[in-house]
Specification:
37% helix, 10 strands, disordered N terminus, 24% strand, globular
Amino acid sequence: MNQSEKIVHPISIKYELETNAELGEGKLQFYVGNQDICSYKKNNKIESYSWNLFCVVTWLCENIEYIIGYDPFPLPVSGDNIQTLIEEADKFESDDLVEEYLWYNAKSIWIFKHNWFSCREGSILPQVYFRRVENNIEIYWDNDFWEESGIVFQVPRGSALVDRKVFKEIITNFVNSFLEEVSASTSDKKQMERIENLNRQLALNED
C-alpha cells in the first residue's frame, strides 16, 4: 500500500499521574484511531503502560524536531514506509568492515531519533517509530521484541498517517499538560530546572 493510499488516522494521548509516588510516575495511553497501542496483556491481565513518564516526555522534547522537520532516512534504500526502509537497510553486507560499521551506525542514529523505544529504561514500552512524510507523520509499531517475554500487545503491529500539524498539536498539548502538572507538584530545585529545560526544548519547535 502506498503512503497516498493510507487512511490518515486521528490520534490522542491520555495520561494519569500516580499520587504518593515519584514525581512523573503514571499511566500512559496512546491511541491511534480507537486503539491504545501501548496496552498489553501479561499473565492474562490487560495492562496500561505504567512508568515514570518523564522518560517519554524527555524523548519527545529532544526529538520532535527530527520527527516533524526534515530528517529523511539516511541510507540509499527504497521503500514507501518505515518497515520497508529498515528491512532493506538490514540486507546490506560489505567486505569493508568500516563501510559496514558506518552503514549500520547511520541507521542506529536515525532510529534513536525516530523510535522512542530507546527511552524505555526497562519499562514495557512498545516499539513505535515516527517520521515525516510530506505533510503527514507516519507512525509505525512492531512489538515482536516482547513476545519472548510473554507480553502480547493488544495491537501488536500496524501503521498510520497523521496530519503533521495535528500530530504536533497533540504532542505539544500532552507535554505541556504533563510539565505543568509535575511543576505544580514539586519545589525541588533540580526537578524545576529539569522541567524548565524541557519547556525550552519544546518551545524551540513552536511555529
